[in-house]
Amino acid sequence: MRHLRALFDHFTLALLAVIAVATWLPASGVGAAFFSGLTHLAIALLFFLHGARLSREAVIAGAGHWRLHLLVFACTFVLFPVLGLLLKPLILPLVGDALYLGVLYLCALPATVQSAIAFTSLARGNVPAAICSAAASSLLGIVLTPLLVMLLMGVDGAGGSQLDALLAIVLQLLVPFVAGQLARRWIGAWVTRNGGWLKSVDQGSILLVVYTAFSDAVLSGLWQSVSPSRLLGLTLVCCGLLALVLCLTRGLGRWLGLSVEDRITLLFAASKKSMATGVPMAQLLFAGSTLGVLILPLMLFHQIQLMVCAVLAQRYARRE
């Protein structure tokens, strides 16, 4: 538990530092073009490593829990978007139009992979099922998230059609993932042995995307349009949304009579949203000037979900 908290705290501090650097030293001109190209390479590497890490044996072991997987998918791609729409009268006055669109984008994203598995393992839940659900959610999100973005937000992709945006996401995210899966036969053991510093590569890729996105947003007047009161309102919205989903998934698992292990998996796999997928995908779906505002709810929700789920996982771990 101590190691997990330390990791999350370090990443949170790194995110804050990147936002500060982007605020005071935003990339522009040739620098912006350089960071944009570097970001695309980093994203491809990120999903290549995701593919290389995922064990086919673990996926096969967890694939039989189809009922649990359907619940996770329904919560991720149906419950979250429905809540985002139903709660609009409460959310909109607190955050404004631009950040509300960011909340809708957050609701359309797939679940996390690494943290969902880590917390399920720590809480002594059904780890094989968590691996299968989280991985399948991430892959389904490559197709479902752009469709949900189109339905919820009326966005067809940055400067192109929905088909162009989907094709860009497939080339940027799915193709490297599949390449990593194919390469796992030769590099899987090496990736497992070097998981510690390769996690830094993952986080570095996300930080690079955040810096590029916030540089564009700062140059377009991000901090003039997002006031401290809006940030406070966004924090309340993210906390309330997470608490509501955690209560609903916990109650759903009990109502359906799932085992304790499966209820833990449902709780941690269905309540999270992936920044590793969401930030790169946003770069492909939205124009540069609006990107920083749209990923701000995701970044805040991500940190809140990690801190809250770390406490919950510890409580489950102490059960007899």
UniProtKB/TrEMBL annotation:
Q: Which residues cross the membrane?
A: 7-25, 31-49, 70-92, 98-119, 131-153, 165-183, 204-225, 231-252, 292-313
Residue ranges that the Swiss-Prot or TrEMBL entry lists as coiled coil: none
Q: Name one Pfam family in it.
A: SBF_like
Q: State the UniProt keywords alphabetically.
A: Membrane, Transmembrane, Transmembrane helix
| UniProt superkingdom | Bacteria
Q: Does the keyword Lyase apply?
A: no
Q: Does the keyword Membrane apply?
A: yes
Q: What is this protein called?
A: Solute carrier family 10 (Sodium/bile acid cotransporter), member 7
This chain's source organism reads Pseudomonas japonica
